[in-house]
Amino acid sequence: xxxxxxxxxxxxxxxxxxxxxxxxxxxxxxxxxxxxxxxxxxxxxxxxxxxxxxxxxxxxxxxxxxxxxxxxxxxxxxxxxxxxxxxxxxxxxxxxxxxxxxxxxxxxxxxxxxxxxxxxxxxxx
Length: 125
What we know:
By secondary structure, this protein is mainly alpha-helical. 58% of the residues lie in helices and 0% in strands. Helix 1 runs parallel beside helix 4 and helix 3 runs antiparallel to helix 4. This is PIG-F domain-containing protein. One of its GO terms (biological process) is GPI anchor biosynthetic process.
């Protein structure tokens, strides 16, 4: 079993395509923004910091989207959009897009409101 799907030889190309897409949406953004001597981008302390926050949201929701989209796979194999790996790839892309939108909305809200409130700033100091 790979990604909750049996690895039949007839569908190994689809499984490889899905794993390549998932890896490119989760691993490559972190490799692009993180120096190899500093892994602070993976911590949750600077979750809204640019660009590690965007990569975190994108990676987390891409994995969650691909996991949740597996519901469509066993429903009916007669539909073209329910065949493997289409639901997994669609959920992965939708989750990554939603992650970027959530990060952009959160960043815009923080910048428009002027950052953290005085009460929260005192806690952070």
